[in-house]
Give the backbone structure.
Amino acid sequence: MRIQLKLKAFRSDLLTAHYNYPFNAVVYKLLNIGSPEFTEFLHSKGYKYKGKIYKLFTYSLRFEKIRMEPDSIRLLSPNVYLIISSPIDDEFFKNFILGTFSTKIIDIKYDGFETKLEPIEIEEQPIPDFSTLHRFKMLSPLILSSLDTNEEMNKQHYL
């Protein structure tokens, strides 16, 4: 399932350019309002597959109109769209939507920036038809890493 949460910025038109961590925290905060038990499970245990742990959700931000500045994004339009996707339809989205409707203001604080966002509406997005060869356009940057191992130590390497 995939949803789009429309947010409206107010009191500030600046958002940190490094928004991944604060928005990840927002997702967990909204889930926690819906179900602290589910959030604790997802955050500390997750879903295990072949020795790795997965959280099984992804998100991206879309902006109507922005201007990039050295360490920030200047919102030339107050509308921000948070798009979230997860194969855990029932529990994940039930808790996320409960948390969203219980919250009047989402406060993003990071790197000396503070942006307040008001949830406006939630809309389910259509599921893409993955049937043949496709090309994809990323909604936001993708961060990949691999584990470099040598005899002395293991080190995470970002691609």
